[in-house]
Amino acid sequence: MNLKTGILLVLILSLGFKVQAQDCNLSIRGKIIHLENNEPIEAAYIWVIEAEEGAVSDQNGNFTVRNLCKGTYTVTIQYLGHKGIKDTILLESGTFTKTYRLEEEALGLQSVEVHGHRDAVTTTTAVSALYGEALLESRGENLGESLRRISGVSTFSTGNSISKPVIHGMHSNRIMIMNNGIRLEGQQWGAEHAPEIDPFLADEITVVKGAETVRYGPEAMGGVILVNPAPLPTKKTSKTSLNLIAGSNGRMGNINLVHVGGSDKIKGLGYRVQGSAKRSGNVKSPGYFQRNTGVSELNLSSSVGYSAKKIGIEAYYSLFQSELGILTDAHTGNLSDLEAIIENGRPFTDGEFDYAIINPKQRVTHHLAKLKSHYHISESWKLNFQYGFQLNHRQEFDKRRGDLNENASLDLELFTNTIDLYVNHTHENEFSGTWGINFIQQANTNIPGTGVTPLIPNYDMANVGFYAMEKYSKGPLEVEAGLRYDFRNVSTARYIGQELRTAKLDYQNLSAFIGGLYHISPDLTFNSNLGSAWRPPNVNELFSEGLHHGAAAVEIGNSDLESEKSLKWINELQYDGKRTHLEFTAYLNPISDYIYLNPTGEVFVSLRGTFNIYEYLQANALFYGFDFAGSYEFTDRISGYLKGSIVQAKNTDNDSYFPFIPSNRMDWGISYDFAKDAGSPTNKITVSNVLVAKQNREPAFDIAPPPPAYALFNLSYQKQFNLADDKLNLGLQVQNLFNTSYKDYMNRFRYFTYDMGTNILLKINYEF
Amino acid sequence: MKTSNKLYLIALALVSFTFTSCESEDPVIENDGELITDVTLTFHELDASGNLVGDSFDFTASDAEGIEIGTTPNIETVMLEKGKTYQMTIDVFNSVANEDITEEIKAEGEAHQFYFLGSAFNSSPFLSYQYNDGGSELIGLKGKLTVQQSPGFNNANMQIILRHDLDKSFPGASNPNFEEYVKAGGESDLDITFPVVLK
């Protein structure tokens, strides 16, 4: 053999090796989801028979089998309680991708676990959720406070007892809250009207940060909050969970009891009952008590459900009852009163502790009942029906003279009926979707006898919406688009003095969205969503006319207001590594005809004194910002997290800023884990620090300048005990560790008082 | 499937029932009960021994519309004579609900108090006021108003403020000319400035 042939042989060999190496660099990627609801399946087993290679799907249902050569392969997919899939694949080049939908095995096999029909959020928009340990730590807080744990969500509050969630600078009627699938319809227009929902009824609270008008109906502009209980059991079980919480500030006591059971006799029948009660008294700010800031709450919820192979039905009822005091010193008589207390910066009196709730106060009762059922027409088509009934009764009491003090000065009863009828289709091929019709009917009545001209008129509203959404999934890629048309009719009537004023208004809108999600690698996901949304003007924006006590303001509505129209583009990059978790969200949200309350600069003079006059105006707005959340495990024991958000809201018509938009904020903390290894029960201490900047993007007019920046330190200790079959969680938290005096720009009572001082909380959770 | 069929029927019945019962009520006329539309100051001269002399006369501040934008209250000028002492009574009325609020203030005397401010009492004082409601409560519905014999000015302003739900034991709160009345807490139910001219 000469040199030449030798070289040639080496060349051929290496070439051959190279070719072979290239060919064996192929991979199969896929995603495994439930056929029924598109929810990802974790821990499904994938086996490529010819290659003798396997994989297990991750929490997003994704899997990858690498280093495969060119050829034909047989892939088998198996998951407990589901029909297996055998698929033949011709792998030619690069990466083969496919989405597999697993169908549940027929009921009847004793060993098979039928899981409840919980519909996942299948959106391609940015979604963050509060569950597990984080939710456990938030227990005892109201919905707004709990959700502050999610980056990009803050609160718009009135004192320490009323807080409304704010998503990317939007709150009240610009976001939507879903109570177990029903859009919560209360008097959400008011800044001092807290959401009528008990966070204890949820085992998971999800925040959808994109525009979701198509899926959820008008007003879901800024985002949607889903408050969802756990799915009902479908087999014999009995579980009870008890929460006991005590707080030093306000001497708060809170109890919650949940019992979940499944029937032994009737397969697929399950139920849940839950009740919670809360009582607290006057809150203490550093150096003084805030008078009349007690809260009394009593909430109930219950549901019963039956699921079989083809049919599922669930009945649900929830009751929210709350009575809360409004800080005595916030009830000012006129503008000079208001200016005097703003100048003083805090109440003139020190107050003392008291549980009593006196006028001014609010009393709210909210009933919600729903009936939901689905029917599997065929393997891939499902028909759904959902009916919701809500009755909201809101009473607001002012400090008044004589017998009137016993009468509410605002007494509203709001009935809402919602009907959803939709079909889902999921196929083993790439398409899935939902088509439906949604009907909302509402009636609002001022209960006579208040002795006050009603702030908003009596009204009847009807809204019909038709929508369709389709999703295309192929392995790591999901693309989704949807379209919706809504028509709304509102008719109002009210007496102003002796004069009857009525109005009939029609609104209609077409909204659409397109979004996509791509799993760049099993650890890294990118999603982008562009959605249009709309919100018809609210009744208060159209017809308000009267005095707003705490604000020493006269607010005047404008019945010529048009619907707000918005476009929200949101992008999210998510990384789930072994030690690192990162979430980065950026959004751009232009809104035309954004409705806002503008000071006219004029004053109204009466025998009672002087008041500022505000009117509702419309302008073009641009909201944009970023959220960031990340955590990192330095060692097995030490980990840290960092969260932050920035939101900008500009009035692009006159280049000014809107009021009550959250300032830049950041939250970071370090945890030390005493637990021996990852599997052992929680035993963790966390020190965290909240940093809130001064709102430098000031609106042109405010009755007081934005408060300075502040920093708060919090301490939390969480320990879990496993007692045979039972579980005990103990939590000790110290909020505002150094009793710092501070005011938050997003708290309307910053005009009157400093925020709450140190609060020590003991939280016990026992599951048995 | 039998049970579920029944459930569907119940659901349908529930839906139809709630739909028919769900319409807003017709609105009714609400007379604003808290409103103060007329405040009348009645003056009756007192002699040296405190007896009423001659006829009484009055001045009114009124705002018939209540809370209505664009209208301003109509306030009369108070005309008094130098060197005289008057019994001043205040009447508060709601013409919308046709209700005498004076009685309510009297009944809740412990939660109400009038303050008398403005240049007539403070910066160029020619008036002095003493509560004289009878009983232990200082309210200001009835009081003694003395005009100086030879003041340096003959016109000024008299600001009448009615505080509701104040802390009457707050230091200084018993002074009818207490400028820092806000510190005693509560809120203003009335804040009217009458021009005063001396004859």
Tell me what the structure shows.
The complex is a heterodimer of chains A (768) and B (199). Chain A has a 22-stranded antiparallel barrel. In chain A, a hairpin with a 2-residue loop joins strand 39 and strand 40. Chain A has 6 helices and 41 strands. The relative contact order of chain A is 0.11. The radius of gyration of chain A is 28 Å and the shape is globular. Chain A has 2 domains: 22-102, Immunoglobulin-like; 127-767, TonB-dependent receptor, beta-barrel domain (Maltoporin, Chain A), CATH 2.40.170.20. Chain A starts with a helix and ends with a strand. The model of chain A is unreliable at 8-22 and 107-120 (pLDDT under 50). By secondary structure, chain A is mainly beta. Chain B is mostly beta strands. Chain B has one domain (33-198). In chain B, the strands form 2 sheets. In chain B, strands 1, 2, 3, 5, 6, 8 and 9 form a 7-stranded antiparallel beta sheet that branches. A 4-stranded mixed beta sheet of chain B has the order 4-11-10-7, with no helix packed on it. In chain B, a hairpin with a 4-residue loop joins strand 5 and strand 6. The N and C termini of chain B lie far apart (96 Å). The mean pLDDT of chain B is 85. The interface between A and B is large, with 65 and 56 residues. Chain B: Residues 1-24 form the signal peptide. Chain B: It comes from Algoriphagus ratkowskyi. Chain B: Keywords: Signal. Chain B: This is Type 1 periplasmic binding fold superfamily protein. Chain A: Residues 359-737 form the TonB-dependent receptor-like beta-barrel domain.
